[in-house]
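Box S2. Input/output pair 1.
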Amino acid sequence: MNELIGNIFTALVIDQNDTHYFLQKNGVTFRLAKEEGEHQLGEAVEGFGYLNQKQETVMTTAVPESRVDNYAFGTVTGVRRDLGVFVDIGLKDKDIVVSMDDLSTMKELWPKKEDRLMVSLRVDEKGRIWGQLADETYFKALSQPGTDELKNKNITGTVFRLKMAGTYVLTDDLKLGFIHPSERYREPRLGEQIAGRVIGIRPDGILNLSLKPRAHEAISDDAAMLLTFLERSADGKIPFTDKSDPEEIKQYFGISKGQFKRALGSLLKAKKVKQEKGFTILLEETKE
């Protein structure tokens, strides 16, 4: 059965009930929802096989792009710290897990809900499907070299590799980008969708990117620090406002209350945060 799971194959319709057709291939019976289309007994149907959440063998004619030996982006739907991250590849009744063994040991850099991961599928000896992250070789083959006219242009893209030297990105127009630690306020997560600008093009065509604003767009370092604290917080808020105790501010942030108020004021003016019931709260449109 394992050679069928996670792959495309053709099976014969052998039976049906009110909601499903039953198809057989190599002695294995698969369920196919009737809502996907009409078929006749004895008809050969091509589809994708998998085990659903109930561990039933299922076929779908809505074949996902992520398959064994075939990579595509999927959307993160959830995280389990003791297992890994769940990814929607387009199956109606099953998300695929990328194992924690394939993720960073720094769990704060794991993908979050709505992030994107480029995955293919692998099937273990028990027939379970796992997501397999694309490696750097795949992204290099997928991408196109950048050219000089891109310098200083704004770009968007998806983080696909985290390294000590910096962060690698696939831009939405299929260029490779690199973010040096000096060109960011915080390290992006794996799968995070970022917006930045091109500050140079390497001889190999990889774009050097910055996540910091241009000089005329820049907020103060103190304001950037507060944003980082808010983004790193579990629920997008911190228990400090412009009414907070100066000593507590100094102990927590390492800046004076005056510096804190100026930084907070700039964020309030830019509509990046709000104050409510003793908390400073990151506004939804600011969250990544």
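Box S3. Input/output pair 2.
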Amino acid sequence: MIENISHAGRVLATLLRTTYHDQGIKFFTPDEYSQQLAYMNRPEGYVIQPHVHNAVMRQVEFTKEVLFIKSGKVRVDFYDDDQNYLESRILNPGDVILLAFGGHGFEMLEASEIIEVKQGPYAGDADKTRFEPVSFQQLIVKD
């Protein structure tokens, strides 16, 4: 299953559940994203021709993160750009999420291992603005 979490016509995140299955290659992100998320399913013997990547100048304005849930259970809370809470999702082992826009926070519902991929270099405190999470009573969790 693939799900885009959107608000006001803008995709905040793309969630690729571990149950997703298709043939070939499928990109889930638009070309203009600085991080691309794709799924690939190839048969035995399929060859991807060896290649190198060329130096291409790119301008990155916003950090996009990709999280791979290796183990455990994680709740991700979505916020708009004004730090208003919108909704939540539960992430399980094997789920992958690309966080594109808006705000987000996480709570580990079980001990969890997460692999994160995002643009670098890390800009420290200039990279993000932290704010208080929504209270537990306000959560809208969609599974």
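Caption for Box S3: The chain has a mean pLDDT of 92. Residues 24 and 57 are 29 Å apart (CA to CA).
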